[in-house]
Write a structure and sequence with these properties.
Layout: E1 5-10, H1 17-32, E2 36-40, H2 46-55, H3 65-89, E3 93-97, H4 100-110, H5 115-126, E4 133-138, H6 141-151, H7 164-180, E5 185-189, H8 194-209
Parallel strand pairs: 1-3, 1-4, 2-3, 4-5
Helix pairs in contact: 1-8, 2-3, 3-5, 4-5, 4-7
Amino acid sequence: MTKPLFITFEGPEGAGKTSVLNQLVAEFQQTLGDDLISTREPGGNPISEAIRAILQPEEDNGMDDRTEALLYTAARRQHLVETVLPALKAGKVVISDRYVDSSLAYQGGGRGLGVDHIWQINQFAIDGLLPDLTIYFDLPSELGLARVKANRQGKIDRLDKESLAFHQKVRETYLELQVKFSDRIKIVDATQSLDNVVDATRQLILERMKYREV
């Protein structure tokens, strides 16, 4: 018998977390098979993906900051109900590209809406469910934005185009969250080579998986 495990990847733009996630998911699926679920926020199911399209257009669509925060929260709730909770109930390992910490950092910090306010509206959505492990990929905002401009495949959305000050506030908030939730949130230095970042992330996941056995 094994316990379910909920792991989330977090980080500012250009941190490379999605590349790391894709590489490690492919690796872990060799041993976990169907017991591993990979997903993302906002998204993971048709309703949440539809909200994602509204939230992440290439150009500014005039969305109010509070509307943005509420839409991310709504997408999160649907993602939990349709994707995450059924997988955890079945005893699976779920790895999600972003979760509630993203809202705290981007809307609470970056948008200046207040981490406490964003935390409050998300409590209704997540109903107390926090990850067993959150891996935060950290790097200076200037480097992250330079990576986005140089390497991003496909569209660069409206969040990518926000000011440097916005992205610096996002990073500051992530770092504050890591201090507050240090037992759950672990930092990986994303300025390293991709191979080194993958190695460090793999070790954190393997260490947490030791506690899955019951």
